[in-house]
Amino acid sequence: MALEKRFPEKRLFLRSDTETRFIRLRSETQLLAWAGGAVTVAWTIIATAILLMDTIGAGNFRAQAQRDQIIYEERLNAMSVERDHRAAEALAAQSRFSLAMDQISVMQSELLSSEDSRREMETGIEVVQATLRRAMQEREAARDEAAVLTAALDGDTSGIAGRRSSVEASGTVDLLGEALAQTAAERDLIAADAHFAIEHAAEMELELRLLEDKTDAIFRQLEEAMTVSVEPLDRMFRAAGLNPDDLLAAARRGYSGTGGPLTPFQFSTRGGATDPETERANAILGGLDRINLYRIAAERAPFAVPVHDSYRFTSGFGQRWGRMHNGTDFAAPTGTPIYAPADGVVTFAGWSSGYGRLVKIQHEFGVETRYAHQNRIRVEVGQRVSRGDRIGDIGNSGRSTGPHLHYEIRVGGRPVNPMIYIRAGQDVF
Predict the structure, then answer these.
(1) I need a labelling partner for 130 at 20 to 30 A (CA). Which of 148, 304, 321, 343 fits?
(2) Which pLDDT tens digit goes with each residue over 161-178?
(3) What pLDDT does residue 385 have?
(4) How far apart are the C-alpha atoms of 32 and 22, rounded to whole Å?
């Protein structure tokens, strides 16, 4: 009855030329029709509201994306400025090292020359002292002999034999006097030479002290430069998750020859323990050798960016749409060159399912890099490439929504974030 009050039964008449028919609209039918219309209107309102909210949210998302893009570009510009600054510092450090090596060469020559001069002076002084000792001994012997002859003259001198002995003794005394005079002259000459040698030795000692002060100042500058240059390299490799000692050991195994400018110094030719200056010089040379090995290791580890032209980061390392994205995407026009970030050997170059045209390069220290979605591959399997060699072109092959490079770094088969290596390299180079 309540339903009948709300929706009384109605009839819908349908009339034609020959007959008239009607349709009975019961209360239940009207209720169903009204409920269906209400549901349709409600669905229309809700769908419209959702569409409007999505449109507004999409606008906010685009604005946020634009703001993020501006912030990211500013960060990239700041990183570029910092990289240029670091490159300038590296060039300045290299210039300082070249100047330091020249100063070390001059210093080594001066030290060797002063060592030879000092050794000659010591030898001369020893000769002078030996001559003085011999002259003193000869003088004492002559005095003893003169005393003996004088005592003989004071004895019995009678007769012809006495006069003959007196004549002979007088001749002997004259000979001894001449010998004593000659010995005295030689003694005076030797004393003058010894005095000159002592004065010259004092001057040499002063020059050696001045040279030692200059050498100490040079060593301090070199040691400070070594500290400033080596510590950023240590931080770079540690930030990339690599052990610097293992890297240096691996690089040293490939370059184990000796000789050249990094041979340890030996300032003294007399053998024995090394002096402090030699140890400091050898420590500096060890630091230079460490930097040289770091340079070799840096060329064999992928610290460089594989794209040198203009590009845009479109996707980073991590979860994306519920799946793991194992690399970093560099968006750039089709045909943009792709360069090897380090020395290595090509282990794969061809088509690989979702990767499209793919290149794999095996580097030292168990590091592998991958370059996917290429338009053209420019290397072959087994080819050895160097840092900066062109290995392919950016494309849109495989599962890709646009031309870009999918860049991966794997250490021991495990994917790592490529930006760790790129940022570590930018902080130093």
Answers:
(1) 148
(2) 444 555 455 555 566 667
(3) 95
(4) 19
Where do we find the tokens 């060039």?
91
Nearest Cα to 293, choosing from 396, 375, 365?
Answer: 365
Q: What is the dihedral of CA 256, 262, 267, 273, to 10 degrees?
A: -40
110-145 confidence digits (pLDDT tens): 777 777 777 777 777 777 677 777 777 777 777 777
Torsion over CA: 123, 127, 130, 132 (sign): negative
Give me the mean pLDDT over the 76-82 stretch: 84
Q: How far is CA 18 from the centre of its chain?
A: 104
Q: Which two tokens stand for residue 405?
A: 């490079």
Count CB atoms within 10 A of the CB of residue 377: 21
How far lies 61's CA from each of 57, 72, 319, 358, in Å? 6, 16, 19, 34
Domains and CATH numbers, the chain: 136-300 (no CATH), 307-317+327-428 (2.70.70.10)
Whole-angstrom CA distances from 339 to 90, 377, 386, 389, 394 are 23, 11, 9, 5, 10
Question: CA-CA distance, 140 to 15, in Å (whole number)?
Answer: 171
Residue type, 131: T
The answer to whether the beta carbons of residues 409 and 302 sit under 8 Å apart is: yes
Q: Are the beta carbons of 346 and 390 closer than 8 angstroms?
A: no
Residue 261 pLDDT grade (very low, low, confident, very high; cuts 50, 70, 90): very low
CA–CA separation, 365 and 155 (whole Å): 104
Which position has the token pair 């012809």? Answer: 160
* β-pair type (10-15, 20-25): antiparallel
**166 neighbors 125 (Cβ within 8 angstroms):** no
Give, for 74, the enclosing helix (H) or strand (E).
helix 27-153
What is the C-alpha to C-alpha distance for residues 251 and 363, in angstroms, rounded to an integer? 13
- Quick one: DSSP state of residue 353? G
Instruction: State which amino acid sits at residue 1.
Output: M
Question: What pLDDT band is residue 410 in, cutting at 50, 70 and 90?
Answer: very high
Where are the alpha helices (H) located in 154-243, listed in sequence order?
Answer: 159-239
Q: Please give the structure tokens belonging to residue 174.
A: 């004259």
Closest CA to 368 of 339, 338, 347, 349: 347
Tokens linked to 60: 């906010």
